[in-house]
Amino acid sequence: MSHQPVKFYQTGTFTVGNRLLAPEQRSVQASAKRYNSLNSGHRACQGCGEALGARYAIDAAMEATHGQLVAANATGCLEVFSTPYPETSWQVPWIHSLFGNTAAVATGIAAALRVKGKAVRVVAQGGDGGTTDIGFGCLSGMFERNDDVLYICYDNQGYMNTGVQRSSATPPAARTATTMAVGVEPGNVFGQGKFVPAIAMAHEIPYVATATVADLRDLEAKVARAMELHGARYIHILVPCPLGWGSASDQTIQMARLAKETGLFPVFEAEGGEIKSALKIRKPLPVEDYLRPQKRYAHLFAPTLRADVIERLQGIADRNIRKYGLLEENP
Amino acid sequence: MDKPFAITLDVGSSLANHTGSWRTRRPVYVDRLPPCNATCPAGENIQGWLFHAESGDYETAWRKLTEENPLPAIMGRVCYHPCEGACNRGRLDESVGINAVERFLGDEALKLGWRFDAPAAASGKRVLVVGSGPAGLAAAYHLVRSGHAVEIREAAAQAGGMMRYGIPKYRLPRDVLDAEIARIVELGVKLRLNQPVEELEPLLGEFDAVFLGVGAHLAKRAYIPAGDASRILDAVSVLHGMEGSTDELKPLLGRHVVVYGGGNTAIDVARTAKRLGAEESIVVYRRSREKMPAHAFEVEEALQEGVQMKWLATVKEAGAGEVMVERMVLDEKGFPQPTGEFERIEADSLVLALGQETDLSLLQKLAGLNIRDGLVEVDAGMMTGHRGVFAGGDMVGNERTVTAAIGHGKKAARHIDAWLRSEPRVPAPKHALATFENLNTWYYADAPKTMRPMLDIVRRQSTFDEVLGGLSEENARFEARRCLSCGNCFECDNCYGVCPDNAVIKLGPGKRFQFNYDYCKGCGLCVAECPCGAIDTMAEDI
User: Fold this and answer.
1) Is A130 part of a structural domain of the chain?
2) Which residues lie across from B128 on neighbouring strands?
3) Angle, CA of B82, B84 and B85, to the nearest 5°
4) Cα–Cα–Cα angle for B83, A21, B513, rounded to 5 degrees
């Protein structure tokens, strides 16, 4: 089991920090001395979920390795907004790679460090495009060889940096530049795409987990757990994109929270291909609550209410809830 | 130039890129007024003292509390806690048990012997306080802490006013009352008992200012035809009589007692009668249960103890061993109307609890005073029409609770202090109210209210032991931690954590946070994710 929420110290572990918790119970992000691996001045949009998720994850990895960390980064939003030559926001040894070969680059770094006899750990990171589409071959290779790399995917469900095109992580019915809200089945089609955490589990690698930027403590615990293990590890973090999703910049965390609470994005962890635990839904909500605030789903509500499409999306959420056991047994 | 192949520029940090220039709205930290504080008649900073109780720092919590109210152990027993009715947590699950935590702090202070800080440097001014009820004690406390010499003159043999002579022991044990009064006296207040002020005017020359808090101790009467053998008492004397040192001095009510009235005093008398051994203790009230001015919980507790209620009835006649009551009905406006149906009830005594008035005889020769409906008129600074004479408590208002009186005493003391120093009192501007809509309640853990233990029913019917118990340390801390800290930063680090641009600076424990506007892009995440609504936004000048 990963993170066990502290239920009652006013806000327990729901908030980033809590003055009532013992110091060892506090989050990495609550520390005044956190690494700030991704520093201020980056050019991500207002309210960027990916910038937030990357700092959460890499700070946690830095904490777990006492700063002995190298990061390889796929092309994508994260690279473009953080490191326009010659300036960078990264405060961690960081290497740029191509869109598709980050996993392979990280494998190479890990091999080189092993040869040199250095106890430095390796992280590879990229968006959903660089992970689930373009870099998928290299990623699967890294998994099957069980290379000693933690791969982190920041999933914002599309190619946002190039103008919001569809990726294989774009959910059904969502509008993107390449899946327009036109025709009988507007938006992205049902029955396509893939859920890479499940594919990673099929490789039976030591550790696979999903997380969101709405559950910091869970995310930090998962990164810490991943760094305790060696071999290929994969963490898939849902990072809402105000630009691509058409949500308000102050609603980034709320969107991630609703994705988890509705069951549309299951938050769980698996070791050796077997699910160990799932983060339970705290306040079950219909998917409509998640869809309505996002402009990429606006065509489901106007000019006519597409109850049939919403119903199909609810079906996906219900299946996730069943499959991953997302509801408390005795609420 | 000693750079690697194809590299021509030095590596730079993104810190050179001041993304704050993107911003159209800026977040700002604010303090909003929590509804509990806004509602408290004594003006306590409830959220402020709960904050310290949350971390187990009870002494700091108590000191914060007593900046406004010197009687927390009494408050924690007799206050009707309107704060809990206003509490935002009430819309989430149940309101925070503020009153229970206050009592815990008050009791803890008595147990551990915490003392008030020594008064400020002596001002050389003398203030007379008439009456040692809650208003007088609160005024004396605040005045003495401001450095003024205070003398209280009390007509009765013991201090406390209605807290002693009106509130039964099962709600307020006298050792608690004595201890909290003693702590105020210890500050250097001169308390003179058995000193009724029959006329105020001759005393004015001796003092620089006067505060009047004489209360309302005269029972209102109603004309009830009564036979020679009937026994009619009033509630004020019955409750006053309970303070007699021996049983012989206690009022004789008999086995069948009828109390006439529907306020808290009527309920107090009925419950007292039950404890004195009455087989039947019946409250007769002319309107319905919903219309009773008594608090619902007091009515409920009385019913539990076996007190009977006769709603919609008036007493027409009192005779030997019985009273005659007439059944009433409410008309469409909610007023009771007679029906002509009568009933006889056994009654060894009839106690009238029909309200109280102030004895204003001491003010006879005072010029400039305005009296309206039996109440002394005061201005916004609690000053009467006679310069230098201030008043508060039951004699100026109809709210008539201990808490309201304490609030009057405090307010008057602050204005007396300003008046004595010839400075205008400029109260700090009030913050905007922290509404439920300001909160992000996702972050608060679910936690139901802690119930306070109640004395068993048999002892409630036969003894004057305290009915409502206190909370243990663990429960009190749990209860304090249910506070949502509405509108006031409680350092949860959310703003610091959720900023994608690291534009929040954590200043350390107790110092809160600061925005780094060089990098804040104005996304508003910190505002949306602040649990307690302590961040607002304002438009940038662009």
Assistant:
1) yes
2) B151, B210
3) 65
4) 75
Q: Taking the CB of residue B418, how many other CB atoms lie within 10 A of it?
A: 16
Domains of chain A: total = 1
Substitution target in A40, A237, A243 with the highest count of B β-carbons within 10 Å is A40
Both B328 and B229 in one domain: the answer is yes
Mean pLDDT of A192-214: 98
Whether the CA torsion B146, B150, B154, B159 is positive or negative: it is positive
Vertex A16, ends A6 and A263: CA angle to 5°? 70
Assess whether pLDDT exceeds 70 at residue B203: yes
Across B83-102, average pLDDT: 96
* Residue B497 DSSP label: H
Question: Which letter does DSSP use for residue B334 in this model?
Answer: S
Shared domain check, B397 and B349: no
Which of B323, B338, B355 is a domain's end point?
B355
CB–CB contact A88 B14 (8 Å): yes
Q: Tell whether B441 lies on the interface with A, counting CB pairs under 8 A.
A: no
A331, pLDDT greater than 50: no
CB B164 within 8 Å of CB B177: yes
Tokens of B310: 């006769």
Cα Rg for chain B, rounded, in angstroms? 28
**Of B45, B44, B62, B40, residue with least CA distance to B53:** B62
Looking at residue A328, its pLDDT comes to 84
pLDDT value at position B466? 94
The mean pLDDT value for B122-146 works out to 97
Contact B498 A52 (CB under 8 A): yes
* Buried b / exposed e along A279-288 (16+ C-beta atoms within 10 A): bbbbeebebb
In-domain check, residue A52: yes
Bridge partners of A234? Answer: A151, A208
* Closest by CA position to A165, among listed A126, A212, A127, A197: A127
Nearest to B28 by CA among B479, B541, B533: B533
More confident residue, B428 or B128: B128
| Residue indicated by tokens 């539990």 | B304
CATH number, domain of B410, equals 3.50.50.60
Residues B347 and B366 in one domain: no
d(C-alpha B437, C-alpha B494), whole Å: 18
Residues of chain B with C-beta less than 8 angstroms from the C-beta of A8: 445, 447, 478, 481
Whether residues B223 and B351 fall in one domain: yes
pLDDT digits 0-9 by tens, A298-330: 999 999 999 999 999 999 999 999 999 999 875
The pLDDT tens digits for B207-230 are: 999 999 999 999 998 889 888 878
Output the domain CATH number for residue B499. Answer: 3.30.70.20
Per residue in A18-62, pLDDT tens? 998 888 889 999 999 999 999 999 999 999 999 999 999 999 999
Instruction: Label each residue of B240-299 as H, E or C.
Output: HHCCCCCHHHCCCCCCEEEEECCCHHHHHHHHHHHHCCCCEEEEECCCCHHHCCCCHHHH
For chain B positions 8-47, those within 8 Å of chain A (CB to CB) are 9-19, 22
Angstrom distance (rounded) from CA A314 to CA A289: 11
Half-sphere exposure of B173 (CA within 13 A, CB side): 14
Nearest to B522 among A12, A46, A55 (CB): A46
Indicate the angle between helix axes B402-420 and B134-145, nearest 10 degrees. Answer: 30
pLDDT in tens, B489-526: 999 999 999 999 999 999 999 999 999 999 999 999 99
ipTM, 2 dp: 0.95
Beta strand residue intervals within B12-160, DSSP E: 12-13, 25-29, 126-130, 149-153
Structural domain including B77 reads 45-115+442-480
Of A20, A40, A249, Cβ closest to residue B524: A249
Residue of chain B whose alpha carbon sits nearest to that of A85:
B11
